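Go through this:
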Amino acid sequence: MICQEEPLLAQITRLYEEISRLDSLKPSKDVNTLFTQLVLTCMPHSAIDVTKLCKRVQEMRSKLIRLCGEAEGLLESHFSTLLGSFENPLHHLHLFPYFNNYLKLSQLEFSILTQHSVRVPVRVAFVGAGPLPLTSIVLATYHLTESFFHNYDIDASANSMASRLVSSAPDLSRRMSFHTSDIMKVTDELKAYDVVFLAALVGMDKEEKVRVIDHLARYMDPGAILMLRSAHGARAFLYPVVDPVDLRGFEVLSVFHPTDEVINSVLIARRVSTPVCTQLFLHSDLASMRLQPSCKCSDFQALNPLNHGSMIEELAINENKY
């Protein structure tokens, strides 16, 4: 286990301690400054493997992820309320400080989806949409302009704020609905969706995340697509990590680790009804490739990499056990 106070861990630990001492995580000068510093510290490419950290740092990381999740929720609530005060809220989305990141992440996810889906999805679910459902709004506005979006959140007030944002846009309000539900209690309805997006902060630790994934695997229709957000390297101090082996019941098609200002990694998987025999393909620098077979397969087709700045891509398709 790695536990030495190397500069990166020392900096993250210092920021965690300062964030923990805050009286409130609502947007303020101090909150914004500390979380900006934390993101900038974790953003550069790092070879750190959070699974090999000592227990003390692992516990700190778990607490930090929850603090980040709470702060992110409060930030989105603040800006959803602010945007809702305008006559046309969607005309002012640029006021949200991370709006450009959502534009880039949604473009990335759409590009990945189109490479693996033979048709445009009719019905899309977003689990954990929150009070500011920017991914759904961006995808529905710019990419999936005929698709219907069903946004799930356990918080009724979050759905109320989100619904208010799109109510002034006739096309979006026609194609976008909001459901106040614990996704673990949503069952047969999941069979209706061509694509399900799982937000990064649904399931704040490995156990919670796996339970949600297993639930989706049980009720999603075979052939449906699951899009998940994860984290890689030091970014795993900001968001939970989803490993391909966590996706039981799914064929993992691709894993993308952006190294620019888009923080989240993206995994895409297809719900299957029978086990698949697959290989592990690592594309480390978009120039050199190496293939590591995990079982004997007769067919293998590599994915053409996206042109998304500096990016690590893993087409990590592992043998699933059901």
Notes: The chain has two domains: 7-95, 99-316. Confidence is low (pLDDT under 50) at residues 275-322.
